[in-house]
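Structure tokens please, single chain.
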Amino acid sequence: MPAQPNFWGFLPSWEGGQGQCYPMPKRPFINRLNDLQPKEWLKFQKSWFVHNPPPRQKGVLRHPAKFPETLAQEFIEFFTHEGQVVLDPMAGTGSALVAALRSGRHSYGIELNPDYARIARQVVVDERQALGEKAGGLVAEVIQGDAACIASLVASNALPPIDYVLTSPPYWDMLRARGAETQKKRRSASDLDVFYSNDPNDLGNVADYAEFVERLARIYEALQPYLRRGAYLTIIVKNVKKGGKIYPLAWDLAGRLGRTYTLKDEKVWCQENIRLAPYGLGNAWVSNTFHHYCLQFRNSL
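Here you go.
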């Protein structure tokens, strides 16, 4: 039987602005995961990407470690269909909820810090106003609470089954490190937080690395009963340096959560708009770490 005829699509390559051609089957494209077209799907499959976020709006500057809505939207639109449900169990000031609204998805965010939860609610209100009718009928709910108590939060807030989890945890207690250049700048501004909170339930205050990984992993493992079968979970995280030593947070988390979920892959988020610092110059090897790991897990149960 002869092979089905192909047509040639055109996808810009990532080097030198050149293009490359790839064969695409002529039969209709059936997409069970998202609403993207084949070319959009293929672009997302690259294992690394550069994303330089736009300047943060004044209302969310207080949060010391916010990930960009533009990045969140790309992931949400790949791992869900329009109208599905997204959860961020560590919502901060609501990046994932804003991205979900822009994408036409329902969303829930859990945030421990009451001040950030309040900001996130206002951010959602502002985004609804900006989107107008496009956001009509979409749920975007901020729940102030501890994600470690997910069972009670699901019950008390009647959360539906979750189609996708997108989140970024504290990078251990690194916001309390006094040497970081960005932290020095934030300390000079009285209206900006240098770290998340002094709450003992805040994982950013856990000094012991092993305890931090254990408590963080337990939170993500406890989400499993509330995810639909086949749902994906994306965790944006990075390995951290402390006291002249690297702690492989991304790798340790991937290994631990691989017991509960299927570790599918990683995408490496590279940032190229950060100024280089002369760490260890003329003395020792210390890298400028301008990348994060976007770990992809799947609920196979």
